[in-house]
């Protein structure tokens, strides 16, 4: 699935990802053009329609309080969120977000679509 947002950038992602408790899951985010700065790539977790929670920023850096079993990797067009030692509370929708502007601006786009 994909969605084209303002700026003609496309994000492509798989459908639902499943894993047993204690297992691992890999969620991929592929952009239609290079993300030239990893500073623009982040991952969020959203549970039950609540407020999205920042997991990873600058493609690889865990946000404060996020367990080490959440790992971000990738560059250019291909990025990955890996969740290891999955726990029941990890069931959620996971979002890849790419900023479309400078850090001083507020506009951005996000296209998420992975349900674990």
TrEMBL record:
A Pfam cross-reference name: V-set
Name used for this protein in its record: Ig-like domain-containing protein
Species per Swiss-Prot/TrEMBL record: Oreochromis niloticus (Nile tilapia)
Domain (Ig-like): residue spans on this chain: 7-113
């Amino acid at each position: 699935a994909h969605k084209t947002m303002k700026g003609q950038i496309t994000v492509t992602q798989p459908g639902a990802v499943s894993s047993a408790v204690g297992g691992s899951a890999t969620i991929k985010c592929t952009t239609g053009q290079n993300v030239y700065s990893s500073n623009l790539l982040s991952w969020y977790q959203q549970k039950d329609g609540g407020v999205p929670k920042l997991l990873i920023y600058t493609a690889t850096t865990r946000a404060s309080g996020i367990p080490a079993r959440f790992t971000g990797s990738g560059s250019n067009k291909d990025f990955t969120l890996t969740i290891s030692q999955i726990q029941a509370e990890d069931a959620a929708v996971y979002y890849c977000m790419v900023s479309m502007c400078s850090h001083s601006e507020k506009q951005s786009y996000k296209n998420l679509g992975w349900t674990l």
